[in-house]
Amino acid sequence: MTRTLNQAEAEARRIHEEWVAAGQAWAAIPGASLAMFAVDQQMIDRMAAAFEVQRPPANAFMSAYGLAWARSSLDATFGFNAWVLPWVSRDLRADVLNRTTERFSEATITAMRAKSPLG
User: Fold this and answer.
1) DSSP letters along 31-80, please?
2) Is the torsion defined by CA of 22, 60, 31, 74 positive or negative?
3) Residues 118, 51 contacting (CB under 8 angstroms)
4) Distance CA 10, CA 24 (A)
5) Alpha-carbon distance 118 to 109, whole Å?
6) pLDDT at residue 62 in the model
7) DSSP secondary structure of 90-107
8) The pTM is what?
9) Which tens digit of pLDDT belongs to each residue from 66-80?
10) Rounded CA separation 25/8 (Å)
11) Which of 2, 45, 78, 115 is the most exposed place for a label (fewest CB within 10 A)?
12) What is the biggest distance separating any 2 CA atoms in the chain, rounded to whole angstroms?
């Protein structure tokens, strides 16, 4: 049976939920943004497989590397703000990092859906 684009997207949405859950597990821990690096690579690869998109081997690494730096920058910014402005809470910081994962995952689905050979 041939997979359809809708089936691939349904699988990617399940991967998205796992990715967001993994991000939530790490987001509240200061300095743990880089711990998501391997998870990010794995999720990007799984989404590529779901959409049957051929990607150069370094693509998932480079995408995850860029996301790790974005998370680390946000993490450092919130760490500094929490030190300077004590009312910046851990839950606000965690929410921003979670939304970063959500947006990156959604962007990955959109990009891979557009490149997918599935009909």
Assistant:
1) T-GGGGHHHHHHHHHHHHHHTT----HHHHHHHHHHHHHHHHHHHHHHHH
2) negative
3) yes
4) 21
5) 14
6) 84
7) HHHHHHHHHHHHHHHHHH
8) 0.79
9) 888 887 777 777 666
10) 26
11) 2
12) 58
């606000």: which residue's tokens? Answer: 92
Residue labelled with tokens 């910014």: 77
Q: Which two tokens stand for residue 10?
A: 């349904």
Q: How far apart are CA 83 and CA 15, in angstroms?
A: 35
Q: What is the mean pLDDT of the chain?
A: 82
Cα 26 to Cα 35: distance, rounded to the nearest angstrom: 7
d(CA 33, CA 48): 23
Which sequence spans correspond to the domains of the chain?
A: 5-115
Contacts of 46 (CB under 8 A, 6+ apart): 15
Which residue shows structure tokens 């860029």?
66
Q: Which of 82, 78, 72, 97 is nearest to 22 (CA)?
A: 97
